[in-house]
Each structure stands twice: as C-alpha cells, then as structure tokens.
Amino acid sequence: MPVPTTTATAMNTQHNGQDSVTRHDWSVAEVEALFATPFNDLMFQAQTVHRQHFDPNEVQVSTLLSIKTGACPEDCKYCPQSGHYNTGLKKEKLMEVQRVLEKAKQAKESGTSRFCMGAAWKNPPAKDFPYVLEMVKGVKELGLETCMTLGKLSQEQTEQLKEAGLDYYNHNLDSSKEFYDSIITTRSYSDRMETLSYVRDSGMKICSGGIVGMGETVRDRAGLLVNLANLPVHPESVPINMLVKVDGTPLGDIDDLEPFDFIRCIAVARIMMPKSHVRLSAGREEMNEQMQSMAFLAGANSIFYGECLLTTPNPAAHKDKMLFEKLGIRPERRVVKNDDSQQEASLLEQVQKKQDEALFVDAAAV
Ligand code: SAM
Ligand code: DTB
Ligand code: SF4
Questions:
Q1: How far is the CA of 59 from the centre of ligand 1 (A)?
Q2: pLDDT of residue 333
Q3: Which one of 6, 268, 321, 337 has the largest count of C-beta atoms within 10 Å of its C-beta?
Q4: What is the pLDDT of residues 267-324, one digit of tens each?
C-alpha cells in the first residue's frame, strides 16, 4: 500500500512512549470533557499525538477552485453561494475544462500538492458530469492529487469519479446532527452520510469536517467530531472551517467566535483522529499569525493556499510563505512509495522539491 513519506529524523517523538490508539467508539460526553480540559493540557496532549504520526514541521498545501459558482438550490445558512440569499454573487455556468486545467497548472507551479474543485450544486447534473470527469483526468495528468466537492453523489457517479482518477471527495457533516437541522433544511444529515459511504466503498479518500462559529454549543462541536471519528474509517482529511461571515446570509452578523474555542476544536479533532490530516480551513483571513501558529501547534497540518477560497478571500500567497518561513514549516511532500514505483517516486520527489522551493523562494524577497 502506498504510504506518504515523512522525514523520520525530523519526527520528534517526545511523548510517553505509548502510541495513540485509533478509536471509533467515542461518546459525546467524553469528548465534551476533552473540550473542557485546561487549555495547556489539551494543547500538550494534541501535540503529543500529532508527533506520533506526523512531522510537526510539515503542512500539506491544497489549492481551491470554484468550478461552478452561485445559485445553489440548497439553503445552507452560512453559504454565500446559496440561491436562497442575496449575497451579490454572480451565477456562473460550469467552468470550461481548459480553463480549469490552466488554473491547476498555475497552482502546481506555486507549489501546491492537491487541487480541489468545488461546485455549488445539490448534486452534479448529468449534462455537466462528463466535463467534470475530464477535469479530474486532466488535473491528475498534471501530477497533482485531485479533490472535488460537488454535493450529493449517486453510487454510479462516485464510481465514475474514482475511475477517472479522483483521489479525495470533500463532503462535510458541518455540525452535530441536531444543530445541522437548524442550519440546512434542503439536504439531510443521512443524505450526507450516504454520500460518504459511497465514497468510502469506492476506494476514494474522504475529506469531511465542519464549521465552527455558527452559534453551535460545545456539545454540537463534540457531536460533529464524534460522528466523524466513529465512521468505520476516519476521514483521511478533516477540514475545520471557521465561519466566514458573509453579508446577506442568515449568519452574516452572528457574534465573533472566541479564538481559543476554535483552537480547542482543532486540538480535539487531532486527538480523536490521530492519523488524519486536520485542515486549518476557511477563516484564516480573519486570523492573525499567532492564532494560525497555535492551530498548527494544536495539530492542524493542512491549509488552503492562494488568495481565494471558493468565493471569499484567503491570505495572500506571500503572507503564507512568510508565515511558513517564520515558523520553519515546510510544505508536505506526498511521495508515494511502493515496490513497483520506486523510480517514479524518486522523480516525483525531485519535482516536489522544486515545488517546495517555489513556495519559499519569494518569501525572502518580500
Ligand atoms: N456544494 C457542495 C457541498 O455543500 O457539499 C460543495 C461546496 S461547499 C461550499 C463546501 C463546504 O464549504 C461546506 O460544506 C461548508 O462546510 C464550507 N463553507 C461554505 N460556506 C462557508 C462559510 N461561509 N464559512 C466557512 N465554511 C463554509
Ligand atoms: C471545506 O471544508 N472548506 C472549503 C472546501 N471544503 C471546499 C470551502 C470553504 C468555503 C468558504 C466560503 C467560500 O469561499 O465561498
Ligand atoms: Fe450549496 Fe454547498 Fe453552499 Fe450548501 S454549502 S449552499 S450545498 S454550495
């Protein structure tokens, strides 16, 4: 089985010698208790778990592209792309395949390792699906990892995406089941679970997480993480989004989230899903460098890189380069090595080394 390499020497395993166990039997009460742990103890526990499985100075870097923007029929109260709210977004058709591939090329040159394509759909329409498959094939051919988030999938569509070369499917649970029902009425939690099970059965990797800052309680945050961690296999990627408040959405003027509560959520996700990549996802534009570095210390080891998320701003690329440099963080190189592909892996490693340089070279000039 291909495994990502990590620099063993750099993996500082200062812990009590016991590896964390991968569990799927968490209770909400137990996780609420974790959230209530004194902050320093929680951070220490999270960082200890993190070092058992990852190089603490590596962060995986993905780039996002909205391939179909706006006029979504769903009513997610946080989302600028929902057609139910007036956020001033222009409705767009599916982007042309060639344009998507150009964007992917640029992302690759900037040093990203995964290209994530998102569409504001309830589910992918049959007429657009062949183009979506072309996008997956084209991005894959560029040597990038591929990820898509297109809404609910049928089993057949899932298998076709896998066949085309899709590595990850992003589909978030967003919150606890109870809180979810007050945020989205047009798509059920069980629909989401069904899509996740199709993705898992197809052999693709799952990217699933949620949003913090929508007015949910600690119990809801615990419920979200329990529902993710108690899946038969942990999602390989767990995006923790801080709500991006967008005018015109029902959550546009909700109270600010206490930053430490967000960091706690990252730490608890890290402890519960020790081998997953936990992504410091949307909301970084509102975070200072110190808050982001605390998220890395809590076990976040993935970010979206580039000036735009899907429709809202993300930190400027040069700022991220500077932050990585200040913290001594390197972009993760996902070199897959198995018996058949040693040579391929070594070539890939060289290419990825070049990409790392791309991520750092400008930082010095800024
Ligand atoms: N339409 C597809 C779906 O909902 O699965 C894919 C795109 S959707 C924008 C992907 C995810 O982005 C959502 O599940 C939600 O977690 C996150 N998201 C959307 N709007 C957000 C916001 N304003 N702040 C933080 N995260 C947001
Ligand atoms: C995820 O969990 N967060 C990303 C990605 N998956 C697709 C999307 C964040 C969107 C933030 C609002 C916007 O830019 O439209
Ligand atoms: Fe549509 Fe996805 Fe936004 Fe919900 S989160 S309104 S499904 S684009």
A1: 22
A2: 78
A3: 268
A4: 999 999 999 999 999 999 999 999 999 999 999 999 999 888 999 999 998 999 999 9
Which numbered ligand comes closest to the C-alpha of 208? 2
**Which residue owns the Cα nearest ligand 2 atom 1?**
239
Query: Please, what is the average pLDDT of the chain?
Result: 87
Catalytic residue (one of 147, 187, 270, 284): 147
- Name the H helices within 203-254: 218-229
Q: Which is it for the CA torsion 287, 240, 16, 334, positive or negative?
A: negative
Quote the CA–CA distance of 347 and 223 in Å, as a whole number.
43
Fold of 49-365: TIM Barrel (3.20.20)
β-strand partners of 68 = 119
What pLDDT score does 30 carry? 96
pLDDT digits (tens, 9 = 90+) for 96-139: 999 999 999 998 888 788 999 999 999 999 999 999 999 999 99
Mean pLDDT of 142-155: 95
How far does the centroid of ligand 1 lie from the alpha carbon of residue 79, in Å?
A: 6
Instruction: Answer yes or no: 23 catalytic.
Output: no
Cα 118 to Cα 242: distance, rounded to the nearest angstrom = 18
* Joined tokens for residue 69: 């923007």
Ligand 1 pocket residue status of 311, Cβ below 6 Å: no
The active-site residue, picked from 187, 192, 207, 265, is 207
pLDDT of residue 155 exceeding 90:
yes
**Contacts of range 34-40, beta carbons closer than 8 Å, 24 or more positions apart:** 34/222, 34/268, 34/271, 34/272, 35/218, 35/221, 35/222, 35/264, 35/265, 35/268, 36/218, 39/260, 39/263, 39/264
Give yes or no: 308 in active site: no
In the chain, where are the structural domains located? 49-365
User: Catalytic: 265?
Assistant: no
Count Cβ neighbours within 10 Å for each residue of 53-71 and write b for 16 or more, e otherwise. Answer: bbbbbbbbbbbbbbbbbbb
Residue 241 CB–ligand 3 contact under 6 Å: no
